[in-house]
UniProtKB/TrEMBL annotation:
<dbReference type="GO" id="GO:0016787">
    <property type="term" value="F:hydrolase activity"/>
</dbReference>
<dbReference type="InterPro" id="IPR027417">
    <property type="entry name" value="P-loop_NTPase"/>
</dbReference>
<keyword id="KW-0694">RNA-binding</keyword>
<feature type="compositionally biased region" description="Polar residues">
    <location>
        <begin position="43"/>
        <end position="57"/>
    </location>
</feature>
<keyword id="KW-0539">Nucleus</keyword>
<keyword id="KW-0378">Hydrolase</keyword>
<keyword id="KW-0547">Nucleotide-binding</keyword>
<feature type="region of interest" description="Disordered">
    <location>
        <begin position="621"/>
        <end position="644"/>
    </location>
</feature>
<dbReference type="GO" id="GO:0003723">
    <property type="term" value="F:RNA binding"/>
</dbReference>
<dbReference type="InterPro" id="IPR014001">
    <property type="entry name" value="Helicase_ATP-bd"/>
</dbReference>
<feature type="domain" description="Helicase ATP-binding">
    <location>
        <begin position="191"/>
        <end position="396"/>
    </location>
</feature>
<dbReference type="InterPro" id="IPR025313">
    <property type="entry name" value="SPB4-like_CTE"/>
</dbReference>
<keyword id="KW-0690">Ribosome biogenesis</keyword>
<feature type="region of interest" description="Disordered">
    <location>
        <begin position="37"/>
        <end position="135"/>
    </location>
</feature>
<dbReference type="GO" id="GO:0005730">
    <property type="term" value="C:nucleolus"/>
</dbReference>
<dbReference type="GO" id="GO:0003724">
    <property type="term" value="F:RNA helicase activity"/>
</dbReference>
<dbReference type="InterPro" id="IPR001650">
    <property type="entry name" value="Helicase_C-like"/>
</dbReference>
Length: 785
């Protein structure tokens, strides 16, 4: 004490000093288990005073814990690929030090992209995947290509003039439209509808020309009133105000516009005959003006036509001779039964006029009202529609033409066969690998120049369409707004990830029923007219009746809600004798039983493993989207330049890209879009038809693996609550109405309105709408007609 120092008296016991260990990193269950082990063993010491932060690891949702840690609670799932006892014991020592090393919880060997650096993220794609039941065989190349079953007839004697059409129309078809010969359904239908006045039910393969099969007889018989018996012209007697002679109903606006386009091309041979459309989403005032001027052929959606019949006095149906119901099964599925009953009854109630106000006789037109029902499939709802609309109907197919039944009843449900030249394959892909397999398939499809020009990807819901479009587009930000903005600025962009040196530019488009009608029309026109390779990401809104030339590939990324919808989806390719390819994504497990239904509707459906698709698609480097400030897009680089390592690196890149958008204040929130797309996808998955729901069992769907296919590292919550549980920013009113404010002000009495219906498109949304109508009698936003 002489030096004035401070003397501290420590009372040391005989027990060794135990340092307090702080466990960081990993999951909280692992940290708690490690603390219990250290407390029980009494030797939980650390080499340093401060615990080192642990690298973040990406683990599967159902990955198993080591045996010495997981004994406190029962395991959720049996281990698929486990570690040896020596590895488990070595991990136990690591837990005692307070450090949870990377990969200590995840099962299976270390992946190529796993990093030991702090902050590294492990993306495991090829572990803990279910084993498929399908036995894959080596693909056998066809020695001879299949003969097209929906191509025009090759017999030189079969011409349009020989079917009863005038030389004027036949010459116009051959010279202007480059149609030399009719198809089989046209050969069987045109003479019957020209000579007889009986109802008809048309059933033929997709892309076989059903539209012209009923349009040409109508135009021919209207033109006949301006010709003599020998075919010479007697002067134009029919004008636009001579009367309405034909009404054509279609379920969607896009199909109505397509029918109107085909009809307009045919009517160029008879410009005095006028046609127009009345569809939802257009100006009702302009439609009334066109009807007031006069129209001879009207193409309409059921909802808008029923509205005009009730409120437009100038619409006179007393002269109507033909009522055509195109895509009859779709009309019934979309809930138009009441509108169709009203339309048929109002037309039949009007007295049939023999002449018009100008005293022009209608002796060359049918002397009764003729109803033509068209459908590629024969379903019970189609038979019900036939009972409503048909009388003494003739059943016409592409192979024969005879009376198969009257009144559309007692007709066996026909099994639809896809075109013979259509090659169908299905990929058995685990949930985690769906996204990278889709990119690999598209990349391999556009690897050669000219091999695929146009491709369509069908997805179950509109939210998922929006997410995949934003993910695949080249450039993270939206185009800058300008005074003159195109309608397709938000629906057409350049694609990333799927380009190749042979096709450096691939256009990307999106289409679904939640888009405004002008945007939908402009997007579909762009898809038809683009000369560069392009990919359309869409819902079932584009699955019915749309005829887009040069569609070489159809990808069903999400299986259709019914086999009939699958039939119409794949019918967008292999049309009019052209070759085509259709690929269906199936997950291992109960979904593989769905293939038994497909084998009954197709001549041959070849199974294929996702491994071969990854090998083809990721054989070359992957081009990433262009950053905002750089002119050239970077290339994805992995530690090992192999297809599997590129797939894991790509998955890791997508996950990091989604997390990066969470920190940015840009308008595009890719992470929020991915979460909402996942929720809508799960809801849509539960809306398959009852007979097929056993193959798409929502209880068997692995939510964690499905979330990974959306670039998410864990499955987001709020799946069962619906969009009513979404949180909106203050001052942000969805849709520009008062619905969002009503939900905030009256949270306890939450009402179900149009915005509470999930963003699922077409058939799935209609089924959900009908169920909600039965319970709460509410309207829906999905009546796109």
């Amino acid at each position: 004490m002489s030096d004035g120092g401070l003397l501290l008296n420590f009372d040391l016991t005989d027990q060794p000093i135990k340092r307090q260990v702080k466990y960081t990193g990993g999951r909280w269950r692992d940290r708690v288990s490690a603390q219990r082990i250290a407390k029980r063993n009494g030797d939980g010491q650390s080499t340093g005073s401060n615990a080192t932060p642990l690298p973040t690891t990406q683990r599967d949702r159902h990955s198993a814990l080591p045996d010495d840690i997981a004994h406190d609670r029962p395991a959720k799932r049996q281990r698929i690929q486990g570690d040896s006892r020596s590895e488990v014991s070595s991990r136990s020592l690591s837990y005692m030090t307070g450090k949870l090393p990377p990969g200590s919880i995840s099962s299976g060997p270390r992946s190529a992209t796993q990093s030991n650096k702090p902050g590294g993220v492990t993306s495991r794609l090829f572990t803990s995947n279910p084993t498929p039941k399908t036995v894959f065989e080596d693909p056998v190349e066809d020695v001879e290509p299949a003969v097209p079953s929906n191509a025009p007839l090759s017999d030189e004697a079969e011409t349009f003039h020989a079917l009863g059409l005038s030389r004027r129309i036949a010459q116009h078809l051959s010279t202007k439209l480059e149609m030399k010969a009719p198809t089989s359904i046209q050969k069987n239908t045109i003479p019957l509808l020209i000579k007889e006045d009986s109802d008809a039910f048309l059933q033929a393969q997709t892309g076989s020309g059903k539209t012209l099969a009923y349009l040409l007889p109508i135009v021919q018989r209207i033109m006949a009133m301006s010709q003599r018996e020998d075919g010479s012209s007697i002067g134009v007697q029919i004008h636009r105000d001579s009367g309405l002679f034909a009404i054509i109903l279609a379920p969607t606006r896009e199909l109505c516009k397509q029918i109107a386009t085909v009809l307009e091309k045919v009517l160029r041979s008879a410009p005095w005959i006028v046609s127009t459309t009345v569809i939802g989403g257009e100006s009702k005032k302009s439609e009334k003006a066109r009807l007031r001027k006069g129209v001879n052929i009207l193409v309409a959606t059921p909802g808008r036509l029923a509205d005009h019949l009730d409120n437009t006095k100038v619409l006179d149906v007393g002269t109507v001779r033909w009522l055509v119901l195109d895509e009859g099964d779709r009309l019934m599925e979309m809930g138009f039964e009441d509108e169709l009953k009203s339309i048929v009854s109002k037309i039949r109630k009007e007295e049939l006029k023999d002449s018009n106000k100008d005293d022009v006789k209608f002796d060359k037109l049918p002397q009764r009202r003729v109803t033509v029902l068209c459908s590629a499939t024969m379903k019970r709802n189609v038979q019900k529609l036939g009972e409503i609309s048909l009388q003494d109907a003739v059943h016409i197919t592409g192979a024969k033409s005879d009376n198969d039944g009257e009144d559309g009843a007692e007709v066996d449900e026909a099994v639809f066969a896809a075109p013979a030249q259509l090659k169908q394959t299905y990929l058995v892909v685990p949930g985690k690998l769906r996204l990278v397999t889709l990119i690999a398939l598209l990349k391999s499809s556009f690897a050669r120049r000219g091999s695929v020009m146009k491709a369509i990807i069908f997805i179950s819901c509109a939210d998922s369409v929006d997410f995949h479009f934003e993910l695949f587009r080249n450039g993270a930000s939206r185009p800058a707004s300008s005074e003159k903005t195109s309608l397709t600025d938000s629906t057409v962009a350049e694609a990333a990830y799927i380009t190749s040196p042979a096709n450096p530019t691939v256009n990307l488009l999106k289409l679904h029923g939640s888009l405004p009608q002008p945007v939908r029309t402009a997007t579909l026109n762009s898809f038809r007219t683009l000369n560069d390779p392009c990919v359309l990401i869409t819902t079932d809104i584009a699955s019915r009746g749309l005829d887009v030339p040069a569609v070489d590939l159809v990808i069903e990324y999400d299986p259709a809600f019914s086999v009939d919808d699958h039939t119409h989806r794949i019918g967008r390719t292999a049309r009019a004798g052209r070759p085509g390819k259709a690929v269906l994504f199936i997950q291992p497990g109960c979904e593989e039983g769905y293939l038994d239904l497909l084998n009954s509707t197709a001549s041959s459906v070849a199974p294929q493993s996702y491994e071969s698709t990854l090998q083809k698609g990721f054989f070359t480097p992957i081009t990433l989207p262009k950053p905002d400030k750089e002119t050239e897009a970077p290339t994805l680089v992995s530690e090992k330049q192999t297809p599997n390592s590129r797939a894991e690196a790509l998955q890791l890149h997508i996950e990091q890209r989604l997390l990066a958008t969470e920190k940015e204040s840009s308008n595009s929130k890719l992470l929020d879009s991915a979460r909402q797309a996942f929720r809508s996808h799960i809801r849509a998955y539960a809306t398959h038809v009852r007979d097929e729901r056993k193959y798409f069992d929502i209880t068997q769907l692995h939510l964690g693996h499905t979330a990974k296919s959306y670039g998410l590292r864990e499955a987001p919550g709020g799946i069962g609550g619906g969009p009513s549980r979404r949180t909106f920013r203050p001052g942000h009113n969805k849709g520009g109405d008062q619905k969002g404010a009503d939900r905030d002000d009256n949270d306890k009495k939450r009402r179900i309105d149009d915005d509470d219906i999930p963003a699922v498109d077409d058939a799935a949304a209609v089924r959900m709408r009908m169920k909600m109508k039965e319970v709460m009698n509410v309207a829906s936003e999905f009546n796109i007609g």
